[in-house]
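Reopening this ticket.

The earlier resolution said the output was attached, but the attachment link was broken on my side. Pasting everything inline this time so it's all in one place.
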Amino acid sequence: MEIKELKPVIEGVLFATGDAVGIDKLAEITEADREDIIKASDELARDYESGERGIMLTHVEDKLQLCTKTELYPYLGKIAKNKREYQLTDTQLETLSIVAYKQPVTKLQVEAIRGVNSDHAVNRLVEYGLVKELGRLDAPGRPILFGTTDEFLRAFGVDSLDDLPEIAPEHVEEFREEAEEEAEEKLNLGI
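Inline output:
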């Protein structure tokens, strides 16, 4: 299949599924080379960027997805009945960053880093679709392993986990000290 024939197929599949579809899966269903899928999707993305269109093609890890251009979000908010809006607390952001950088990670490992119970924060992040269960750790009790989702990548505007900013070593020590101080304060307050 030629690139010009692949573009409408990719567009149709992505539109119909409404979700991210892997490049390898698109190559499989079109019986095309992976490189041709990438070329066609790059052309399709340029088509959306150059025209006066309301949608764009995004790359999330090794997947493609059609989504609304960000500048149109205010209009979507007016029509969406169940607008999914959430505001992350400092605790949730801290927990999310630990999961993002340490994944796959258990709640117990998150708690060891934070120094406080993280059940509620992790559960909320799962509810918001930013964190998901990845499986079970092969250890006594078989604790659940957590990691970030494609929604996390979209929400924070990164294509892959490799694009997350690196934490400077001097900041790691600062964060550890702050977490210890916070844990000690909560312990003193009986929280």
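Reporter confirms the inline version is readable. The mean pLDDT is 85. The radius of gyration is 21 Å.
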